[in-house]
Write a structure and sequence with these properties.
single chain, about 325 residues, seven-stranded mixed sheet, binds zinc ion
Amino acid sequence: MTVDVIATAASNTEFSSASTLRQRTLKTSIGCTGIGLHSGVKVTMTLHPAEPDTGIRFRRTDIPGQGAIVPALWSNIGDTRMNSCLVNDAGVQVGTVEHLMSALAGMGIDNCLIDINGAEVPVMDGSAAPFLFLIECAGVVEQAPARRAIRVLKRISVSDGDKTATLTPSTGFSIHFEIDFASKAIAQQEMFVALDKGSFKAEVARARTFGFEQEVTMLRSAGLARGGSLDNAVVIDSTGTKVLNDDGLRYVDEFVRHKVLDAVGDLYLAGAAIIGHFHGVRSGHALNNALLRALFADSSAWAWSTVSTADAFAADMTAPRMVVSG
Ligand SMILES: [Zn+2]
């Protein structure tokens, strides 16, 4: 499989000089069916290979004409109440894109056209693993043009109360996330992960979205979480101490890992991979998007760059490392 060939080549970088990475797309089309987390509506989605330099784009197959195309870009993010929802100039929406975007980022897919016959990406099991599986089944191919990335040149930080999100220059792409919930089932959790060498798949992809039992009624009255269930979310009971899912957690610190998963997806809405370090403290979709807006508002804060094996596999981008878990 192409993915394995690339991984093998990359692990040999110490024996050869750094080389430029190529753009990647899917080898073939692949689809899935599921329900939207917030809408509860059944949708069918198909990921297609796409031409170089076209990026990640959604195409609503239930909408006629050019208005059906919704590019997966930070500037198209509208509602961030409970998810990252894209909306184009024609007002056409695609909601809850973050877990799919996270899988595309984790697999290094630059170009993909995503057909979808409804307004929300299916939630599947609440993680990025089903999308990762789809991409692996379809296969990944390299394309001729060099991979383009956004290199962070100076520190950019945004905050909202006690929440902060910060990007700083770094080789490769790494994430440090801290959360602090009153709920004893979550409490304080922290994770540092360098996203390379399969760490996304091993450390992040399977972490599910989560919510609180007492939030469900409120969310549903706001027209949200209608498709949410123990099949696609970790739910914490009203005492805040117990996970209601029979099978428990997939990782002891699944909550912070899911926040990392969301951040990877939200940041991939930059329109290209980011070469930099992200630090989130209690951050969420709204603040992650505000961070991209602040980055792109300052032309001295970033630059287009190609990506070399040196970026992805520099000394501080080795195996994933966890600082604390709890
Ligand atoms: Zn999420």
